[in-house]
């Protein structure tokens, strides 16, 4: 069985599937005279071989992100998969972590999210909604996060989903992390993102910043808990100026949906993104001298003792 989740955050952005949808999508659906059919934020799609999760996160059900969620569902079901859409908005997922979620506290005098999550994981008292989301991920073979880029990040509901569902002691620990040892190892995930600015603006020299770097924190987070992360799908310029006639606009929308469907058709041929794993760190948590560097965020740099030794030499 394959589970595809459309989430806005997780899970709406589901954390898989569709993440939250941007205003760009809402305005776009309005230009289409509400002809777009949207999948609600935090929708999960579960599919047929194991489970593919695809989540969508737009508050507006007629958004373009919602259309992409529907496209994913139709495409994957056409391949013989079973798809589950998890709609965080409709499910009223609470993205705010806090004491109210932990009636049996580790420390009633001071709230520490990590400490309470670990205590709840150890005592099997995690909140029901968190257990539900973890179960969705566990039965998924592929998780898709569908969301609009809001302020160079995921929508808040998706971020809150990550904060609450990636539980310390349950989903990750010092001995259970990275693609080689993570809880979700063997499963795949990728981001499907929509932007308001055009593609050139998200290049290395673009005014909106390099999208590869913008998305890295979320993709690294997925790798950190064990997912094999596939290249993202990107729909640029969704919030730009609309064509003069609705026919041209509708044609452009259909072209983007077709591109997404094509991306889904070639998932088995895509090479996962490289991330450092457990074997790459020294005892201080820094990249070993002989370990590869896959991102500007984690790269080899001269260490103080190295610079001092060089100066003395």
Would you write up a description of this structure?
The chain is an alpha/beta fold and 313 residues long. It has two domains: 2-275, Rossmann fold, CATH 3.40.50; 284-313, no CATH class. Helices cover 34% and strands 11% of the residues. It is built from ten helices and nine strands. It has helices at 8-12, 23-31, 64-78, 113-122, 128-138, 156-165, 178-181, 211-224, 246-265, 304-312, and strands spanning 2-3, 6-7, 46-47, 52-56, 83-86, 142-148, 188-194, 228-229, 233-235. The longest helix has 20 residues, at 246-265. The N and C termini lie far apart (62 Å).
Quick summary of this structure?
The chain folds into 2 domains: 2-275, Rossmann fold (3-Layer(aba) Sandwich), CATH 3.40.50.360; 284-313, no CATH class. It has 10 helices and 9 strands.
Write the layout of secondary structure elements.
Blueprint: E1 2-3, E2 6-7, H1 8-12, H2 23-31, E3 46-47, E4 52-56, H3 64-78, E5 83-86, H4 113-122, H5 128-138, E6 142-148, H6 156-165, H7 178-181, E7 188-194, H8 211-224, E8 228-229, E9 233-235, H9 246-265, H10 304-312
């Amino acid at each position: 069985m394959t589970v595809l989740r459309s989430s806005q955050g997780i899970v709406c952005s589901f954390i898989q599937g569709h993440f939250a949808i941007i205003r760009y999508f809402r305005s776009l659906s309005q230009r289409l005279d509400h002809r777009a059919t949207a999948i609600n934020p935090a929708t999960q799609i579960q599919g047929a071989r194991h489970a593919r999760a695809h989540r969508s996160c737009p508050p507006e059900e007629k958004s373009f992100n919602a259309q992409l969620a529907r496209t994913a569902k139709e495409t994957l079901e056409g391949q013989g998969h079973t798809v589950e859409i998890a709609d965080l908005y409709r499910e009223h997922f609470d993205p705010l972590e806090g004491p109210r979620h932990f009636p049996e506290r580790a420390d009633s005098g001071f709230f520490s999210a990590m400490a309470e999550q670990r205590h709840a994981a150890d005592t099997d008292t995690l909140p029901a909604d968190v257990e539900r989301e973890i179960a969705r991920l566990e039965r998924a073979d592929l998780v898709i996060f569908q969301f609009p880029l809001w302020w160079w990040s995921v929508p808040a509901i998706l971020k809150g989903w990550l904060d609450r569902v990636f539980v310390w002691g349950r989903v990750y620990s010092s001995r259970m992390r990275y693609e080689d040892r993570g809880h979700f190892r063997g499963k795949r995930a990728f981001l499907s993102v929509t932007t308001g600015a055009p593609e050139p603006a998200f290049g290395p020299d673009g005014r909106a910043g390099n999208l590869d770097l913008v998305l890295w924190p979320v993709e690294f987070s997925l790798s950190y808990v064990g997912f094999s992360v596939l290249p993202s799908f990107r729909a640029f310029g969704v919030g730009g100026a609309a064509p003069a006639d609705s026919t041209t606009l509708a044609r452009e929308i259909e072209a983007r949906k077709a591109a997404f469907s094509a991306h889904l058709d070639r998932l088995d041929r895509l090479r996962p993104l490289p991330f450092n794993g457990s074997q790459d760190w020294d005892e201080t948590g820094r990249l070993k001298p002989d370990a590869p560097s896959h991102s500007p965020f984690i790269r080899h740099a001269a260490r103080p003792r190295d610079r001092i030794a060089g100066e003395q030499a």
